[in-house]
Amino acid sequence: MACTGVTAGRIVEQRAAAAMPGLAGIKAARSAAGKPAARAVMAAAPARRRTLRVAATATTDAPPAAGTANSNGGGTRVMIIGGDGYCGWATALHLSARGYNVCIVDNLVRRNYDLQLGLDTLTPIASAHERVRKWGEVSGKHIDLQVGDICDWEFLSQAFTSFKPEHVVHFGEQRSAPYSMIDRQHAIYTQSNNVLGTINVLYAIKELSPDCHLVKLGTMGEYGTPNIDIEEGYLTVTHNGRTDTLPYPKQAGSFYHLSKVHDSHNMHFAARAWKLPITDLNQGVVYGVRTEETMADKALINRYDYDGIFGTALNRFVVQAAVGHPLTVYGKGGQTRGFLDIRDTVRCIQIAVDNPAPKGEMRVFNQFTEQFSVNDLARIVTAEGAKLGLEVKTVSIPNPRVEAEEHYYNAKCTKLRDLGLEPHFLSDGMMDSLLQFAIEYKDRVNLELIKPAVDWRKSPVSVATMSAAVAKQ
Ligand SMILES: NC(=O)c1ccc[n+]([C@@H]2O[C@H](COP(=O)([O-])OP(=O)(O)OC[C@H]3O[C@@H](n4cnc5c(N)ncnc54)[C@H](O)[C@@H]3O)[C@@H](O)[C@H]2O)c1
């Protein structure tokens, strides 16, 4: 079901990118210029003091020449916090390929969650340093990598001072709802990492780069499932004869989703108090793994999570179908959410960067392209699997979450379309290639990690890391 209320797009996303996007453009430009690959310099620096805090590298190179032929970034400096993660890595390469000057800031903690819980991505991913080095070799573009924690003010302020971002794209949070519900410790970690990290970013912009535009990843899950249409961030209300436009009410469904709500409130305040330009992107559930740039070399491949903690609905179903595991529908399966292809995630970010929010405003975009229920997804995966000779079964399992399993859901998502987003829809052949991809890597699947093991109702005070990843049979 396509996103409701979509209007014909006013196309302001640069057409040049569509005409000669990404690596195709780079290859053409490089062969014309005969330029060698750019350097990827990463100097080691001392380890920092807190647990899960890793070394910082202050590595800003001289910015590359502003823009290149066939690109439209013009050397614009974009700091990507969380640029080693699923959405961030694809976005970093997408923007770098198009002539933006990209700096990745990441403490690599996502890799640490896998170590904590015994999880692994379906795809073998290279180290952050190797990825960036390989990108330099493949594309001739330099991406700066600064490894450190945004909750560490000393590190973050140094990263800002050295890179001088014009835009900060902030993906750098703990992003799993089940992870936040493992136990008290993981709930506290999620909220402190996410909320405090974002406050640091707000202070860094105010103090060090006051004209810098913040593009912050929120989630559609902030809204919950109200019995009225979901607007893009704000709702005009008439109450006792008076009318105002107010932040849309939030009814988040986990401590993770609540961390995003708190971020939104903090950003809304900072935009007003300090006249910061902020875009809050309430993203839907992302699916897919391939983008043009991440498929350019095996060292650039993106992560793909299928486990019960970090795997998202459609990506999980695809892997389940590929390995002959029944699709695990939670409860009645009427849970409906907004979804988008990772190729649209990266384009939405580019659109937000190219069209910054005005100073003093927290603009909100709902970043998804289609709505599906869990049962819709199971039907689609079953039908597409049959075309590949897979016999796909579905089981309903007790819902580990506390959520409505049948509900009204109609969320608006017109603003990014109005700014030029041309979506990839699930029906455009994506399922076939995603299934083929999962089949290619199916020998890496650990079947024990598929069933959900974190129960919202239990979430104990005692540390439950050992039981979090593998469900009791
Ligand atoms: N993946 C989805 O379907 C989805 C949907 C809606 C919203 N989002 C949001 O998009 C963002 C990115 O999601 P993702 O799937 O790429 O997550 P991810 O876990 O793959 O990536 C997040 C990255 O941020 C880094 N990070 C976390 N805390 C940090 C800190 N304190 N300092 C520095 N780096 C830190 C991690 O190491 C990781 O590389 C998140 O904010 C998430 O909430 C994702």
UniProtKB/TrEMBL annotation:
Gene3D superfamilies in UniProt: NAD(P)-binding Rossmann-like Domain, UDP-galactose 4-epimerase, domain 1
CDD domains: SQD1_like_SDR_e
Signal peptide segment: none
InterPro entries: Epimerase_deHydtase, NAD(P)-bd_dom_sf
NAD-dependent epimerase/dehydratase domain residues: 78-366
A Pfam family recorded for this sequence: Epimerase
Family: Belongs to the NAD(P)-dependent epimerase/dehydratase family.
Protein name according to UniProt: NAD-dependent epimerase/dehydratase domain-containing protein
Source species of the chain: Chlorella vulgaris (Green alga)
